[in-house]
Amino acid sequence: MKHYMPTKILSGIDILKKNKDVFTKYGSSCLIITSPHSGKASGALGDLQSIFNELSLTFKIFDQIRENPSVASCIQAGLMAYEMKADYIIGVGGGSVLDAAKTAAVVANNPELDEPAIYKLSWTNKPLPLILIGTTAGTGSEATYVSVMTTDKGMKKSIHHEDLYALYAFGDPRYTISLPEKVRISTAIDALAHLLESYFNNNADDISIAYCLQGIRLLYPELKKMANKEELSLKDLQTIYDASILGGLAINRTGTVFCHTLGYYFTENYHLSHGFACALFTNDLLDYENENHKDYSDKLYDTLQIDRQELKQTISSLLPDFGIKLSEEEIKAILPRYENNGSVRNTYGTMNIDDIEIVLSRLG
C-alpha cells in the first residue's frame, strides 16, 4: 500500500488571512487564474487582492476560465504566466478553474506545449508552484493530481500526473455562500458521486474506504437538508467542504467508475453540469452493486446505518427532471466510447459494455 499526498490542505474561516505568509514563499510575482464571476462573487478574489497589496506582491488576473475549460484556455493562461515571468500561480474557483490552473502551471514552464503534448504528458520542466483556493464544495480538485479539460473536438478528457498536485489548497466555507442553489446541489452531489464511486471500485483499499465512509457520514445529512429545502448554516457549509475534500482524496487513490465517464457525454451533448451528469447514474451504480455484489454493498449501508432506498430517493429528489431520452441509434453510436474504458473497468466487479448498454437503455 502506498500513499502520496503532498498538498497542504487548510480550511476554515479567514483561512487566507491566517496564512498569508504562504504567498511570500514562492516569489513576488503571481498569476491569478479564475472565472469571469465566481472569484469576485465568492469574496475570495477580493481577500486575495487585499493580502497581495498588504504584502506588496505583484499579480495579474486571467479571468477567462469557464465551465468545462478548453485546453486552449489553459494554454492561454499558462502563456500569460510565462510572458509575465510569474513566480507561481494561484487558481481561485470551482473545479473547472482549479483543473485549468494545474495545466496552466505546466504550460507556464513549458511554453512550447500544445494539446497533443499535454495529453501525452510530455513536458520537460516542472510546473510553476501552484496554490488552489476553492469556491465550491464538490469536485475535490484541490486534493487531486487530475486535470479535466475539453479537447478541441469538444470531448472531456483528463490527464493524471504527480506534477499537478498543488503545494497548498485553501477552503473558506464563506466562499461558498454566494453559490446559487442549483450549483450548490450539483457540486455537493458530485462529492457524493466521488465517495460512492471510490467505494464501489476495484482499486479501493483501506485508506480510500476510510475516506469514503467518513465523507458519506459527513455529507449525507447535509444532502437531506438540501432535499428538504432547509437553510444551511456556516457550519453546514464547512462540513460539505470537508466531505468534498475527502471525496477528492478518495478518487485520487482509486479513480472514478462508469458514472463519471458516462456523465462526460451528457455534459458535452446535453449541457448538464458535471455534478448532475455524474449523479444521473449514481443510482444505477447502487443498483448494479446491490444486484451483483450484495454483501459488499450491504456492508456500506450497515456500517453507516443508511437505508439504501432512502439514499436513492434523496439522490433522485436532488436531481432536476432533465427529460433526456436516448434512442437506440444514439446508444449504439456512443457505446464504442466505453469499450475497454478504464472507468468502466474500475467499477467493483466485472462490469462490461453489455452492462453499460443496459444502463443507457434506461434513458430510452
Protein traits:
Rossmann fold; alpha/beta; globular; single chain; six-stranded parallel beta sheet; Dehydroquinate synthase-like, alpha domain; 2 domains
Known CATH architecture of the largest domain: Up-down Bundle
**Overall morphology:** globular
Biggest sheet, spatial arrangement of strands: 1-8-5-4-2-3
Secondary-structure element order, N to C: EHEHHEHEHHEEEEHHHHHHHHHHH
Roughly how many Å apart are the termini? 42 Å
What is the CATH H-level superfamily of the largest domain? Dehydroquinate synthase-like - alpha domain
Molecular structure report:
It is a single chain. The protein folds into two domains: 8-175, 3-Layer(aba) Sandwich (Rossmann fold); 181-361, Dehydroquinate synthase-like - alpha domain (Dehydroquinate synthase-like, alpha domain). The strands form two sheets. It has a six-stranded parallel sheet, with helices on both faces. It has a two-stranded antiparallel sheet with strand order 6-7. It contains 17 helices and eight strands. The longest helix has 22 residues, at 206-227. 51% of the residues lie in helices and 11% in strands. Strand 6 (146-150) and strand 7 (156-160) form a beta hairpin. The radius of gyration is 20 Å and the shape is globular.
